[in-house]
Specification:
Blueprint (H helix, E strand, L loop, with lengths): L7 H12 L2 E4 H10 L3 H10 L7 H13 L5 E4 L5 H13 L7 E5 L2 H9 L1 E4 L5 E3 L16 E2 L6 H23 L4 E5 L4 H12 L4
Parallel strand pairs: 1-2, 3-7
Antiparallel strand pairs: 4-5, 4-6
Length: about 210
C-alpha cells in the first residue's frame, strides 16, 4: 500500500523475483482490460481518466479470477484502496481458503509525490516504469526500445485529485489493518534499494 508514486509497483516487481510470488497490480489489470478495447475496458478508462476509483464489486470480480488461477503466494499491489475493498478482499480470500499474511504501507511524504509522479514515464511496449530528469528525458525505453509516454492519470492536475481521493478513501484502510497485527510501515523517502531491504527484512520474519 501507499500513496500515488510511493513505489508500490517497483517494489512489488522486485519482491516477486525475490520470493517467487505472483504480482497482481490492479493498475496493470485495468490497463490490460482498457487495451483490449472491450466495452468494460472503455467504461474503466472513463473512470480512471477522471482520477476516480473503479467500483469495488468490479475490481474484486476481476481479481478473484486471477487469484483462482495460481497457487503461488501473491502480492496485491495497490489494493485494497478502500475499507469496502479490504472487507471484500477478506471475504474473497476466505472463500478461496487463503489468507492475508502481511500489509506493508510505503509511507512517502506528499511533498515528494507530485514531483516524483511528474517525472514518471511508462513504456508502451514492455510496461517498464522510468523516472526522467528534466532536460535529459529519454525518448525510448532503455529495456526494449519502446515508446515512452506519460500516463493520463500522471498529470499534475490528476495527481492532485488522486491525492484527494487517497486521503478520503484509502487512508481509512490503514486504520482497518493497523490493529490486525499484520500492518507495517516502511519509509518511502529512502533509496529504492533501502526500501526493498526494509521490506525483505519484514517478510523474512513472516511465518
Amino acid at each position: 500500500m501507499g500513496c500515488p508514486g510511493a513505489g508500490k509497483g517497483t517494489q512489488s516487481a522486485k519482491l516477486q523475483e525475490e520470493f517467487h510470488l505472483k504480482h497482481i497490480s490492479t493498475g496493470d489489470v485495468l490497463r490490460a482490460e482498457i487495451a483490449s478495447g472491450s466495452e468494460l475496458g472503455k467504461e474503466i478508462a472513463g473512470i480512471i481518466n477522471k482520477g476516480n476509483l473503479v467500483p469495488d464489486e468490479l475490481m474484486i470480480s476481476m481479481l478473484e479470477n486471477i487469484v483462482k488461477s495460481t497457487t503461488k503466494g501473491i502480492i496485491f499491489d495497490g489494493f485494497p484502496r478502500t475499507v469496502a475493498q479490504a472487507e471484500a478482499l477478506d471475504a474473497m480470500m476466505q472463500r478461496l481458503q487463503r489468507d492475508i499474511t502481511e500489509v506493508i504501507m510505503i509511507d512517502l511524504p506528499e511533498s515528494e509525490v507530485v514531483s516524483r509522479i511528474a517525472s514518471r514515464r511508462q513504456c508502451r511496449k514492455c510496461g517498464e516504469i522510468l523516472h526522467v530528469t528534466p532536460g535529459t528525458e529519454a525518448k525510448a525505453c532503455p529495456v526494449c526500445g519502446g515508446e515512452l509516454y506519460t500516463r493520463p492519470d500522471d498529470t499534475e492536475e490528476r495527481v492532485k485529485h488522486r491525492l484527494e481521493v487517497y486521503h478520503t478513501d484509502t487512508l481509512p484502510v490503514k486504520n482497518y489493518y493497523q490493529n490486525s497485527g499484520k500492518y507495517v510501515e516502511i519509509k518511502g523517502d529512502q533509496t529504492p534499494e533501502k526500501v526493498f531491504e526494509d521490506i525483505v527484512s519484514v517478510l523474512k520474519k513472516v511465518k
